[in-house]
Amino acid sequence: MCELFLNFGKWRIELGPLTLVNIFYSTISAISTRKKANMDGLWNSRRSAVYARNGMVACSQPLAAEAGLSILKQGGNAVDAAVAVAAALNVTQPTSTGKIVSFFNLVEFVRRKIQKKNREIFNLIYDEKLSWRIWGFTELITQVETDHSIHTSSLVCGLGGDAFLLYFDAAKKEVKGINGSGRCPLNQSIATFENLGYSEENRPPTTHPLFITVPGAAAAWVDAVELFGSQKLTLGEILAPATRMAEEGFPVAPVCAYYWGRSERLLQNASNGNEMLLNGYAPKEGEIMKMPFLAETFRELAANKKNGFYQGRIAQAIVDVIQENGGHMTLSDLQNHVSTQDEPVHVNYRGVDVYEMPPNGQGITALLALNILEGFNLDGMRHNSPEHLHIIIESLRLAFADARFYIADPAFESVPVAGLLSKEYAAERRSLINLQRAANNFEHGYPPNFSNTVYFCVVDGQGNACSFINSNYQGFGTGIIPKGCGFTLQNRGANFSLDPNHVNSLQPGKRPYHTIIPGMALKDGELYCPFGVMGGFMQPQGHLQVISNMVDFGMNPQEAIDAPRVEIDGGTAAGRILLEDGIPIETVRILEKIGHRQPTIVTGWNRSNFGTGQIILRNPTTGVLCAGSDPRNDGHAVGW
Hints:
single chain; 640 residues; alpha+beta; 2 domains; 7-stranded antiparallel beta sheet; 17% strand; globular; GGT_lsub; GGT-like_enzyme; hydrolase activity; Glutathione hydrolase-like YwrD proenzyme
C-alpha cells in the first residue's frame, strides 16, 4: 500500500492510495489535454453550442430556462422572459455554484493557525472527492466548517437579495441598466459594530444580521417589466411558471443538491430555516421540493407590485426577523427603497463595445483589465499558455488594485470612472507589466479625474437582449428567513469596509461595493452578445476571459465558456493564483517560476471557484442565435 504523509508541525495529513492514483490520473489527463490543445490551438469544448432563430435563454437550471422560453413563446420579450427565469431560479436553484472550502483553504488555515509564516505551502492537483485523514485536528476542522467567511461565497438567486440588469433595445440601438442593489439601514453605522466590539480587523461572521441590506431584487423585477417589458403580459403571467413550480414541487438537480447540502446546518440553525428544508434536511438529488410560502410571496408581488413586497405582510416579516436576530432594519428602510436607472459604462475592445454597470458594481474591473489587455498582441499565442496567462493575470491584478481602491456608491463618493477607463490611463498601467516576471504587488493608480455578482441571459426574436444577475451574496445569505415568505435574506453588507476612512466604508443609506455584474457587448452598433460569469470576485475575471476567448481566439459561446479559467483568489492584486483543471501542470510550474503566487490546479467540485457563465451570440445578418451554458452547473441553453 502506498501512502503519502504531509506534516504541519504536530499535525499530519495522510493521502491514501486512492488519492495518489487520482493525482497521477489527473496529471496524465492534464498533460493529454495540453497535447490535444497544441494540435488544434483551441480548447476542445465539452459540448456543442445551441442554435435557434426565434429566441434563446441560457441559464444555470433547465427548468428555469424552460420557464423563460415559455414566456417568449407567449409573446413576451427578453426582459419579460428574464424576470420569469429569475423567479424560477428562486425556486429551483436557491443556492448556486460558487467557492467552497477546498483543500487549499484548509492548508492556508492550518498555516495561519500554527503560525509557520515562512513555510512554503506545496502545490497539488486536488479533487474534493479524494479522501484525506487528519490527526490532532478536530477542533480546527469544526472551525473551518462553521466559519462561513471561509466556508462559502456562492451566489444565490433570491428575492431576499439584489439584482442588476442590462437591456439592449434593438429598435433604439441603446443599452440601458437597472441597479437593483439595496442600501444599509439608516439607523446603522460603523459605530453600531464598534459598540459590539467589532472593527475592520475583527469583523463579525458574514452571516451576522447587521450585514443585511435592503433586498432590492423584487423592485428590480417590477421596474424591469414596467420600463422595458413587452407590456403584452402581466407580472402575474410572467411569474406563473415559477409560482406553479414552487407550489407543485420540482426535482432537485445534482449541483444544486450538493450546495444545498453544504448549507444544511446554516438553515437548520436559522430563524424559520425549515421553510427551505425538506423534512428538516436539505433535499437530495432527484427529490421533490415544494416551496408553498414562496409561491404565496410571488402571488402578493404579482398582485400588488412593489407595495406587495416593501409594505404589508412581507415587509413586516422581514423587519420582525431581522430585529429578532439583532439587526436594525425598519419598515421605513423598506418603504423608501428605489432602484436606479444607471447609464452603463463601456470600452471598445478590438472592435467590440463591452458594456458593464457602473459603480457601485465591480463591472468596471473587467473593463479596466480589457483596456490593459488590448495593448498586447495575442496573435500566435497559444490559448492558456504561460505567456498568455501571465498577461491575463497581471492585467487583472492591476484592475483589482484600482477597483478595490476606487469602487464605492457614487451617491457618497466621487468615482473617477472616465479617467479609469481612458485608453491613456490603460497605457500607463500596462507599462507596469514585466513580460518576464510577475510583480510582487500592484498599487492603485492615479487616473485623470475627468468629469462626466445567478447569471442568465435572454435574446428574443426581435434582437432585444437582457443580461440579468440576481444574488444573495454568500450561500443562502444570512440564512435568516422572514416567516412565511420562503426566501432567505442577503448578507451583501459584508462587502462594506468597517474602516471609516475607506471609500467603501459602511454608512447609513449607502450601497456597498457590489460583486454581481451583468455584461453586454455590441459590434458596429448591433447586438454582439449578452454575457456573464457569476461567482463573487471571479465575475470580472470571467468576463475578461470569455470576451477574449471569442474576440482573440475565435471561440463560439460554448467553447468560450468551457475553456479552463484562471482566477486571482479573493479579487485582490496580491491574491494567489488558481488554475482550472485542463491547464497543463507544466504551465503551472512556469508561472510559479516567474513569480506568480502559489499557482495551483483546481479540479472536481472546487471548479466552482471559476464561476458559471452564459452567453448568447447573435448573427446581425441572419438573426441566428448561438448560445453556450456553463457545464460547471446544472444548466443549458434552450431556444426555438
